[in-house]
Amino acid sequence: MQQDGVRFLEKEITEIKVAVIGDMMTDRYITGRVNRISPEAPVPVNLVESQREVPGGAANTAANLAALSCQVYACGMKGHDADGAVLTSLMEQAGIDMSGMICAEHYHTTAKIRILGARQQMMRLDYEEKKNPSPEECCFVLEWLENLLARGLGVIVLSDYGKGMITAGLSEKVIALARTYKVPVLVDPKGSDWTKYDGAFGITPNLKELSDCVGREIPNDDKAVEEAGKKVREKYHLTHLFVTRSEKGITCISEKGAIHRASAAQDVFDVSGAGDTVMAVTASAVAAGLPMDTILELANKAAGIAVSKVGTYQVRREELIRAWNRKGEVRLSYQPLTWKEAEQKVRFWKERGEKVVFTNGCFDILHRGHLTYLQQAASLGDHLIVGLNSDESVKKLKGPERPVNSEEDRSFMLASLRSVDEVVIFGEDTPEELLSHLKPDILVKGGDYKVEEVAGRQYAGEVKILPFVDGYSTTGLIHKIRRD
Predict the structure, then answer these.
(1) pLDDT tens digits for range 268-284
(2) Residues 6+ apart with CB under 8 A from 355
(3) pLDDT band at 70 (very low <50, low <70, confident <90, very high)
């Protein structure tokens, strides 16, 4: 299983061609701070600090596939409006082929606006207009799809959010056409009647969607999910049924029986778009012909990364490779980035519209306080890069008997943490010079600093001060070990 996943992620996934047909949307996140209640009405006042847009709905599935390095072709509707222009820009940045997109007259592009305060969603505002493609537009979609199938398309995803793109007629014709070319169709379903998905290779409902389909609540236990899923699979002539079950992971039901794969326990910040992540990994792995055990493990790994982030998030191939390698203990060493490499990586992330967080420290003996602090720092953006004090720098700051662990060991341990993307070493007393090269979006400092006291603050978009966890310190641990 381990080597199947490694081979797939390192090479095979980049050769897979995927068509995503569905309801394309724009997701907008408005983030702020809530410190008071409005004098006009008993509602919180959100002081807006930032705003960002990401692909939503079927566009998020397409963006997830593109982030995994698949070759992605998108088909859906958008309008001649500002949200349509944003959606186009986002998909272009992701490297998605939009030759199948339909620009519909007198149509408002679907947009979801989420208001967040202290990283918690406070409200959602939806702009949507349900619209079915015309007969002429359906013909265009089928011609576009057949052209891709003739050129070696590996898998088709129908991403149905109930906004009108996936009609019964179009869905049935897509599945029939794909069957002619022996290409699998995977469906992210909507509603309780799945007749229009009849004959698909696989459907990926969550537990609630499966419950809606059978008309009763399904308990989240293996036997109940397996029994309900078996009936649904047979009723709609599906090859596989993939049921996502939150902390219980994923269950795959096929003619051979059921496979249950539990997810690893972890902090969950936001489940928005996690189903699209599972679909992207499952579809690409199915196209590559991987064993089902490996497919489910990969999907679980990707979902775990997605829910650890705030907001809709596209899991990148390098992140999944790191998570997969940790599982199999393949990574036996880690080489910290050079300053130039770190600068290039930060620039690359920022050009993709992703928020980069930086923090620094000695991190000599990792303890719970460190891990909590790093998890909090990582939750503020999309990537966390850690500036690590060199051995000589630690000696100057902490004394001749420190560090206990070498910079090689410390960087290896930090890079092995899920919350840390990369590590870069600096030898100065402060990371100010390093920050002048990296210029992160957010500079995080721990303790009781004031913002104006933080070295290198002028090179960051903003500075955040996070409190340390009381009762944990490396110096305290060393004293305790010596005393005991």
Answers:
(1) 444 556 788 899 999 99
(2) 52, 380, 381, 382, 383, 441, 442
(3) very high
